[in-house]
Amino acid sequence: MEIKVNVLYRATLRGYTRLIIAFLFSLIVLSIYQYIVLYYKGVTDRIFGMSFILAVVHHIGFSALIGLLFVAPFKFFEAIKPRLGIKFTFAILVLLLLSELILIGYYTITYVPLGSDILGYNYTDIKDTMLKSGGITMYPFLILVIVSAIFYGFFKLTGTFYHHISKMFPFTIMLLSLFLMTLFTQRKPINDNKTQYMAYSLILSSLEDEKYNSTVEYPLLKENIQEDVLGAYFNLKEEKPNIVFIVVEGLGRDFVGEEAQFGGFTPFIDDLTKQSLYWDNFLSNTGRTYGVIPSLLGSLPFGKTGFMDLEELPNKYTLFSILKNNGYRTALYMGANSSFDHMDTFLRSENIDYILDRSKFESKYNLQPADAAGASWGYPDKELFKKAMAIYKPENSPRLDVFMTLTTHEPFLPPNQEYYDEKVIEILEKSNTYDSRTRKIIDKNKGIFGSLLYGDEALKDFLSDYKTKPTYSNTIFVITGDHRLIPVPQRNTLSRFHVPFLIYSPLIKSPKKISSVSSHFDVVPTLLAMLSKKYQMTIPKKTAWMGSAIDMHEEFRITKDIPLMRNKNELKDFVSKTDFYSDGDVYTIKNNMDIVITNKEHNNIARLLKNFKGVNAYVTQENKIIPANSVIYKIEKDKFSKQEMVWINSQFNGNNFDNAYETAKQYAFDGDYERSLLLTRYILSEVPSHIDAKILQGRINAWKGDYSRAIDIFEACLEANASYDDIYCALLDASFWSGNNDIVLPLFEKIQENNIKSPEVHEKVERAYKQLQKKGAESNTVIVNSKIEAFIAIAN
After folding, report:
1. Among 41-45, 214-218, 295-299, 691-695, whose mean pLDDT is lowest?
2. Cα(673)–Cα(477) distance, rounded to whole angstroms?
3. What is the dihedral of CA 369, 370, 376, 379, to 10 degrees?
4. Which of 14, 150, 342, 476 has an alpha carbon 20 to 30 Å from 205's alpha carbon atom?
5. How large is the angle between the packed helices 691-703 and 725-737, nearest 10 degrees?
6. Is the separation of the CB atoms in 663 and 652 below 8 Å?
7. Pair type for strands 585-589 and 579-582
8. 331 strand-pairing partners
9. 195, 66 in Cβ contact below 8 A?
């Protein structure tokens, strides 16, 4: 009898070499895909050029490095079991191709490679950003299937030239030589292997020296020498002025004013620059939205991944707390969730009076159109300003109002998008100022430029509405961008931070254009110096501002040292006078904010950046910005014992606080009130604006029979968000159970005022009204009762 035996032969180095070569060819295919996308978007002029050749060279180096790193594991697993080593290597290489594909996708959207900044974002942040920036499409997955097939195809193809591969000896020396050769080529983000770039960035970040080498306990603290550079330009009144900040998402200088590369899509702002104090060479200190509020309103250092990301916020001063302490009403208005980037925690630490965010818009306001994944960041700019004006009430005290717009953010879907697309086409057809490359970029990004047009209109409408308010004549408007929007190609690495800065007001004596360079760090000390000189103000004697007085010189000059944080966890850029240090290179800044690389020794500016990193890390990690006894408002986060934290972490390990709320709610429904309250306490310590967690706390108190405490909680919730139906339901329930149905009388006015249409609220109002009728309402409630009867009749 003949017995056939299947014998598994161990893979040799020849098979391993075939995998590495196939991996290289697959990387080259991914590079071709990258260059095709960039060419289609108008970012590059050609697909196959010197840049592409350099990309191939860098892929060769990366493939050689991977070959060196995994040859030992390949042999190890192959010795354990035949073919195990080859399967292990194949799987690793597919994962690396997947990584490269994802990172190339990120680069073709943002035009900057993803590096150590990935450590600054948690899973929830990344997921939300992906969903609300255009969604997750099938194209990357389709490309992955294609690339995997190509990888396997190349692997099979290499079998046809075994005899050549067998002559590659010694193999490791060849790989090492290839890798070392690529170390001397000129690497740029466009032609670098994106996986290698991220790995290198992460390694550098982990090895980075941020040691603070000084014995000074509070290195930023200094005498508050107030230099009033603005006062001469204003006709200030006897009453303190209102101050309105408008932070326009993505508004870079490239879109605004004379000689803007992509000008013509913000006509109202362009006109406003001619009526304002206008700085055309201003810098945002961070390249993303996470940093604008601490920099612009607090002149605060960055921390490791952004000031608002700090686990424990250090003692600090901001414009919010100082002006509130001087009689101002403080508020922030935005169409997105205020919990994103922990902004709500930061604002509440400054005892802010009011926050308007996504949760407080009624149904009559329309969300920004959803993207392909059905996600929306929140309410677009016109709706934001409309809502703010609807709740506007004249105050006896001055106001500090801060607005943050949304529409000029990915996925760039303005309401009535077709109308704005047509306007973009119309502007392109009528204008002869754009070169062919700029014209192509605009044509390929109609959503972006249509969003700019929409946002510009929204700002125009807002200021027109504000002019009808009695406070307009004594209001100062500060308008700037948080950073330059990313998906439109940038001239250089400094463009990311280059934003317009305007101070517009009927109080200004005459407009002026200023071309000297200042930054968001300089705004707070400048405004406070002007106010304290004119008015009786309580200003700290010592401050720790990162900036100083704004430079009012009309001609271009740079007299300041300005640190810049490109992304979370990426502090690589620094301006010192006309020198710009970025990623190890030194440039000279020209008067139009162009940069030219120089041969100047970089040690001095590199040392300045290193010293700043040490101070930045020390003061934020050790709580050494200002002393504790200097803080105006000390609002500490809820504290938990070690035992409590063990239990909390056993129930909730991550950053999805909505899931944690669902867990807390289930505990409450099961009657375990103490555990539910503990979990809601933790949620609110991390996300103070989580209104559902607050309502659940109130309901638990009501279920336990503490109706007074429950009603207090619900009334506080109403103060924070008077448009949320569930608060009214909870409050009406607690008042009904406690027999305190008289609460429906004042509550009814609030229900009408906020246009609450919920059938459940209507039912509970009717229930409370019937209880009042049974016990006999007082005569002075007859009119109110008649209104309630009419309200119930309409509802039914």
Report:
1. 41-45
2. 48
3. 10
4. 342
5. 10
6. yes
7. antiparallel
8. 354, 401
9. no
Task: Return the pLDDT at 1.
Answer: 41
CA 69, 73, 79, 84 dihedral sign is negative
Give me the helices (H) in 467-602, please: 523-534
Bridge-based pairing state of the strands 542-543 and 222-223: antiparallel
d(CA 627, CA 292): 24
In the chain, helix, strand, coil percent, each to 5?
55, 10, 40
Give the pLDDT score at 779: 39
Does residue 411 have a cis peptide bond before it, meaning omega lies within 30 degrees of 0? yes
Annotate 619-638 with DSSP letters as a single string.
HHHTT-SS-GGG-S---PPP
pLDDT in tens, 634-661: 877 788 887 788 788 777 655 678 888 9
H or E stretch at 728? helix 725-737
- Under DSSP, is residue 45 helix (H, G, I), strand (E, B) or coil? coil
Phi, psi of 7 (to 5 degrees): -105, 125
Q: Could you tell me the two tokens for 125?
A: 């942040």
Give me the amino acid identity at 9. Answer: Y
Cis peptide before 414 (omega within 30 of 0): no
pLDDT attached to residue 796: 53
CA–CA distance, 571 with 611 (Å, rounded to integer):
12
CATH superfamily of this structure's domain 642-795: Tetratricopeptide repeat domain (1.25.40.10)
Fold entry, domain 240-630 = Alkaline Phosphatase, subunit A (3.40.720)
Does residue 354 carry a pLDDT above 90?
A: yes
* φ, ψ of residue 120 in degrees (nearest 5): -85, -5
pLDDT tens digit sequence for 720-759: 888 888 999 999 999 889 888 888 878 888 888 777 888 8
Is the CB of residue 483 less than 8 Å from the CB of residue 499?
yes
Beta-strand pair 242-248/329-334: unpaired
Nearest-angstrom CA–CA distance, 13 and 671: 65
Helix (H, G, I), strand (E, B) or coil at 756: coil
Cis bond leading into 170, ω under 30°?
yes
Say if CB 321 and CB 306 are below 8 A apart. no
**Cα–Cα nearest to 62, from 211, 223, 185:** 185
Residue whose structure tokens are 């250090």: 314
User: Where in the chain are the domains?
Assistant: 13-207, 240-630, 642-795
In contact, 402 and 247? CB cutoff 8 Å: yes
Give the CA angle between residues 584, 279, 592 to the nearest 5°: 50
pTM: 0.81
